[in-house]
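For reproducibility, we list the full input for the glutathione complex.
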Amino acid sequence: MGILVDGVWHSGDHHETEEHGGKFVRKDSTFRSWVTPDGAAGPSGEDGFPAEPGRYHLYVVTACPWAHRTLIVRRLKGLEDAVSVTRMVPEMTENGWCFAEPGAEPRAEPDPLYGAKHLYQIYLRADPKCSARPTVPVLWDKQRETIVNNESSEILRMFNSAFNDFAGNPDLDLYPEELRKDIDELNAEIYTNVNNGVYQCGFSTTQDAYDEAVSALFATLDKVEARLDGRRYLIGDRLTEADWRLYTTLLRFDAAYFSFFKCNLRRIADYPNLSNYLRELYQIDGIAELLDIEDAKRQYYSLERAWYGRPAIVPRGPVQDLTAPHNRQRLPAAA
Ligand SMILES: N[C@@H](CCC(=O)N[C@@H](CS)C(=O)NCC(=O)O)C(=O)O
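The corresponding predicted structure, in tokenized form, follows.
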């Protein structure tokens, strides 16, 4: 998990937890411009890029929960023809994320734009003096040949509203005006304690930091379990971005976070509401195929090499069936 400093690539682990008492503190994303329908500035005055079909490219690792959520919204909005995608190899290497060799991977491709080998080369193309962690997802502008944005929560919002003129599903709104306050509040807690919380459990380098993270994670999961008792979805009777942001963590939980990140007080399978809710979302048309859970296991366990200096061993289990029926029809959903 290397890092770029002033345009120079440094391999190795650079999480600097010792500066934060053993806690994992995620760095803010670097590129924060916005695509808007007409190229006007973004919601907080960010540089604007105009939405145009075929102009933007998404670099992802499907195993990454942050990248996965942008793929989900791209799919739900019907943006497959408008925004192209390259999937990278789901394995963390000395050189960070890598593009696949032609034909070598079942679910990853070479870089179609520049023939790059590593993601950090794409960051350097955007800014030769770049200082950043080369993370996925990356939204790339083929015309200006630069990174528009590498923050998934923002890419998700752009896909939701900027490309409606050529989206297959322009009427779908995952962040409706009247629900924004509730969505933002839930997102904040779920991001801190769950989406990022699992990483804090896994990346902590002191017992206290881990103990704090694991308590907060399960306190929030317990709360969400209770919330889903009377509501079909997180906000109520309609799916919003809050659900899809939670979904990508729930989907990886039992297969990766429970074991590899020591998030092991309970499995999602042990929560009746969360597990049924997870299966409902997984079974929505077009969703399951966006991630093969084996890729997620491969991605997380690939860290064993960097952490323990030996080849990674990917565990066989757990046995789980996300296609099994769910019971969520008992709660009302909006038409
Ligand atoms: N805040 C970013 C986080 C993205 C992120 O951390 N992605 C991980 C993959 S799961 C990554 O690329 N990590 C590489 C690294 O940290 O070096 C977002 O939501 O887009």
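The CA atoms of residues 62 and 290 lie 7 Å apart. Strands lie at 3-5, 8-10, 34-36, 48-50, 56-60, 83-87, 138-141, 146-149. Both points were considered when choosing residues for closer inspection.
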